[in-house]
Amino acid sequence: MNVLVFNCGSSSLKYKIISMPGEQELAGGAAERVGPKTSEPSRIVHRYNGKTEIIQVEMRNHHESFLEIMKLLSKYPDLIPDAVGHRVVHGGKYFTGPVISNDAVMEKLEEIKDLAPLHNPPIMELMYACGKSYPDLPQVPVFDTAFHSTIPNYASAYPIPSDICTKMNIRKYGFHGTSHQYVVEEAAKFLGISKSRINAVSCHLGSGGASLCAVSKGRSIDNTMGYSPLQGLVMSTRCGDLDPAVSMQLLSLHENNNEEVDKILNRQSGVLGLSGYSSDIRDVLNSIASGGSHDERLLKTSEVYLWRIKKYLGAYLAVTGKVDAIIFTDTIGEEVPFVRANVCLGMEIFGLLVDHAKNNNAHKLPVDISAENSPVRILVIATNEELAIARRTYETITGRPIKAVTQDLKS
Amino acid sequence: MKILTFSPTLTKIEYTLQDTESEKPLLEGMVKDWRGSRHIQKILREVKEQIILSGYTDEAITTIDFAISIRVPFGGSIFTRTKIADDDMVAELEKYIPYSPLHLPPVITLLAAVSKIFPETVAVVAFETSFFTGLPDREKYYAVSPDMSNIGLRRFGYHGIFHKYAYLEGKKTLNARKILSVCLENRPEIAAVADGRPLMVTSGATPLEGLPGLTTCGEIDPYLITAISKKMDLGPEEINNILTTKSGFTAICGKNVSFDHIFSKSAPEYKLAKDIMQYGILKNCGSGIAAMGGLDLIVFTGSYSYLGRFIGPWLQNKLSLHISGKIKHPAWLCLDHDIHRLLANEAVETLK
Fold first, then answer.
1. Can you tell me the distance from the alpha carbon of B202 to that of B285, in angstroms, rounded to the nearest whole number?
2. A159 → closest Cβ in B144, B145, B212
3. Closest to B209 (Cβ–Cβ): which among A154, A243, A314?
């Protein structure tokens, strides 16, 4: 079965064709600069058989980008999709796992689209386009929130009046679930533990968004993100945790202009707001390492960023209890040894001991970077959300669970 | 030494007369709705009369054996320890009113009234935030533009007097250096204190952040403020009222509650509230241990410190620490001094 996996951004549409259940990536690419005209033309960057092809074509919306991608794939007989898997950011209270899309599913998605006003509508536009042009092609939305539907009430409830919670469906939803679930399953495989028995803390440290997830017996029991992806860690431009009184002060200061406050906290804060230099923590760390250590603002950015991860790591190690492993993944987690070493520094009390040579040479993933005498394993695992979506899509359509495969598909 | 202590909140002012030679206060009282300059002067005159009726002369309350100690919830970054009240202090506090607009004005009125009614008696002011002026930058700052930090946006703790007490007692009784101080008040707060220095605290720029309280929401997704504003068409003042007076465990239980209700064994309807409270404590203890790189002792203080007898063993069982190749569980301790006893101690120490 060829699964076409879509990861839809506001102005881009990434895709991969993965042959299942063999988990072989056949092709991939992205439609870029989708939407109103920009300084450069919109285009599709397509990778197949080791070659990269760039096709310039106007794509005013995701419907058009979808049709162009399908047109491109139809040129290759071995790339014809049998099913489509979509990364959907928010599943609200309705979706605790992937489903085959139909009218009822779309109705529910319409009902909850306000929960992720920036992310869900473009995906839905894509799903409608797919359903209209290819009605016989099954579509499976795979939700970032689904893995976190197992978070117990005592960790997901916000202590605010129930009438507001009910009206607005307020609870901790958690995000990055597809990635957390994937790396936890890979960690279980790596350690030879059943995926339904592994206890872990997964650190998904992206260059944009980031979250930690506490996992008990293979199930999410807490996530640093909350009702929205704004809560928790310091991210590239998102503030993460903030005293609610500060948000209210900002709202007051900006005369109830919600959009302005959302813009400040989502797009002008985090690493960018703290450093005033870059939204990418790697730039900040590199600048400090290359002699910028006298810049107090950069040092402060680095300290606040790293401490917030460590603070939550301690919290989640405490709530998870007997932990088998902590896992670092995504761009920063996979590529920046300094972040991993710093976050684990002084955490012997939780059973974390890093082997610094292994940490500095963690290029071929997955890899265990813990010292031999470390009671808890410290793993670096490449996330592969597209493969995770392909797995969930295959399982949902066939009803058959994926067996353990250890092939690394990261391209 | 005799110390007249005052602990004002927004809704009431409590006072006691403490004797350093005795465990029990010589007199104690509480007045609700105490604010307003004339009203507080009247209250203080009545307190003075009570003291004189108990056998103290006007002269006795002006000697070096008599002092006043006042708890003040917010002292910004400038008041790093308990100080003797004077005009300069009041002038400084007035500058901080924008950062604590609800709490500081009545306190400033109280200081003026104390100076008027007890003109010859030395008064010290103990700030709840003093203990936290030395928080490390990594814990102190939010991930926002420094424009906001420059206007005073930073994290404080708001039960510093209890946390200091927890640290000193932990050090004295068990020689503990790394302490998790769990202050069980209506608005609970946890601090990690290593060698006397706070490294982590659950409260934030205001006391609203952190663990949920009886009516306060605690830590929530910051996006919820604008989301509620949009969806419910509410302004910041209305949202503030909801999050400070109608949230927390009152919202979870759907009625007014106390921590005694929540931890009562025969109250299954409070189970979710109890689970939220315990989980919040466990999670933040994990952060505190990470901040200190270890843990010697958990100390419970505050009006509900006795609940530490239920929470302590639960926490002890949940926290498995890797020490010298073995799994160990932390010790815990409940301390029962109330805030007035600690205010008296602050006065004695400051006037030494």
1. 10
2. B212
3. A243
b (16+ CB within 10 A) / e for A340-350? bebbbeebbbb
Out of B143, B218, B282, the one facing A274 most closely (by C-beta) is B143
Across the interface, whether the CB atoms of B143 and A240 are under 8 A apart is answered yes
**Same domain, yes or no: B112 and B177:** no
Question: Domain containing B209 — which CATH number?
Answer: 3.30.420.40
DSSP alpha helix (H) spans, A228-295:
244-253, 258-267, 270-275, 281-289
Global pTM value: 0.94
pLDDT tens, position by position, B133-163: 999 999 999 999 887 766 678 999 999 999 9
Which A-chain residues 295-324 have CB contacts (< 8 A) with chain B? 297, 300, 303-308, 310-319, 321-322
| pLDDT, tens only, A279-288 | 999 999 999 9
Instruction: Kindly list the distances between the CA atom of residue B34 and the CA atoms of A106, A356, B41, B124, B125, in Å, as whole numbers in the listed order.
Output: 58, 61, 10, 20, 19
Residue A71 included in any domain = yes
Structural domains of chain A, count: 2
Which residue positions in chain A have pLDDT lower than 50?
A: 404-411
Statement to judge: residues A77 and A190 lie in one domain: no
Same domain, A186 and A75: no
Show which residues of A are catalytic.
Answer: 144
Counted across chains A and B, CB pairs separated by less than 8 A come out at 243
- Nearest CA distance, A96 vs chain B (angstrom): 21
A54: CATH:
3.30.420.40
Look at chain B and report how many structural domains it folds into.
Answer: 2
Contacts with A, B 278-337, CB within 8 Å:
278-279, 282-291, 293-295, 318-323
Domain membership of residue B95 (yes or no) is: yes
Q: Is residue A393 part of a domain?
A: no
ipTM: 0.95
Q: Which two tokens stand for residue B285?
A: 């203890």
CA distance A158 to B205: 20
What range defines the domain where residue A24 resides? 7-81
